[in-house]
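ugh ok fine here u go
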Amino acid sequence: MEEKRFTIHGATISGIEAVSVEVEVDFSAGIPGMTIVGMPDTQILEARSRVRCALRAAGFEIPRNHVTVNLRPGDLRKTGTAFDLPIAVGILAASGQIPTTGLDECLFIGEVGLTGDLCPVHGEMAFAVLAAERDLTLAGPVDAHLCHTVGAEFATLLHLNDLREGVSGFVGRDRPVPGAGAESAQPALPLGPAVDFGDVIDQEQAKRAFVISAVGGHGLLMSGPPGAGKTMLARCFPTILPPLERAGRLEAALVHSVVGLEVTSILEGQRPFRAPHHSISTVGLVGGGRPVRPGEISLAHEGVLFLDELPEFATATLQALRQPMEDGAVRIVRAEGTFSFPARFQLVAAANPCPCGHLGDPGKRCTCSPERIANYQGRIGGPLMDRIDLTVDVSRPSSKAMVRGRQGASSAQMYDLVMAAREFRRERLARGAEVAHGRPLDALSFEDGALDYLERVAHRLLFGGRSLTKVAAIARTVADLEGHEQVRAGDVAEACAFRSKQNLGEVSEHAA
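structure:
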């Protein structure tokens, strides 16, 4: 053997980022075997058996020495199966079974099977970003088409199918380059959505709330009896949202890639839609665990987080949403460090008005006591409710409308309204109509009558500072939908009506 020691470039996932790790392989006298040091987890330690079987199956010799593998730096905890391939390549290079030319220009990632085949690992996009930053070729069982879809700032790639190809087929090759036109190609959206607002009958007020939410990025809570269509409305919501821009696609796809979820639709511009069950834990919702991984709110980044049966969620879990909703990110502090995950999502929630679900339902009588109703509604918590912008009642659709199949606004029609309002807002801001940096309570963006009306309603309904600011922001969104340069009293009235369903009667009375 010409070489007794060799170093291969590898990486591990920390949070949603890939961190560079040097895989050092050293041979020494002693009982044949393999020792892996450098704070490896159980998955990495199991690589000792996988690599030995893979090398034998690929036709290589198993060194009759003691092999020590050091994952440097030693104070960083390493996780995952991505170290299988760099360990195998390092053993073959150190034992002189393959040429070493070009190995230092590659970042190796991949899991090996017992037959020598290579398997993909979680976090391919994060590894591609790291390889690009270090000017290395990402070598392994990577999906070249997937990584090329997101543009030229990602690394050059070398797709490998099995161990023999990986250690002999690429040596001496020119560095591969992304496919032609990868940067300029525009992602193509699917031909049509699987769901459509046109299939939701007799819920035009709720659809109006969803249009306002889509224009202004406002959170929304639906309240109504079972079977009224709340879940279907929520699942239709992504069909009226604008496609993701490039930066948003990359961020959202990176989070999904780290946890091993499909990212093709996100890279094509579709916004993620996450609907966790109400039994989810706080760690599952906001992130954490060991190793630390993003939760549902980060998987909903740049998309929609739908919480059905909102009062059934654990109170502590719901309250954990408050800070991420304000900051657009979640910070998790653990002994091994601080992790930050993006969490800019639109919250859509649904709840029954009471435990039996029929409070206020004209068709069925509610059987719940006032105490049960108060306890049920109190599970959501005032601080979280204060951060939900729009609240809308979703009544049971009429039998006549359902039987006759009356059609309302479709997703295409609502999408046109959303895009027109967003374009109006863009032009308004470009003209400087929104002074003071676009603050929602800027007096110059309100007509005099609208400001007076807002002041009276805020005093009557005891709006706090956050509530008042949110009502002003919703009113500005309504004005953009109607094409109003300044917010009018009618825009404020609609915003107040959607702000709190309990106050609908008082708002209507005050408007009169």
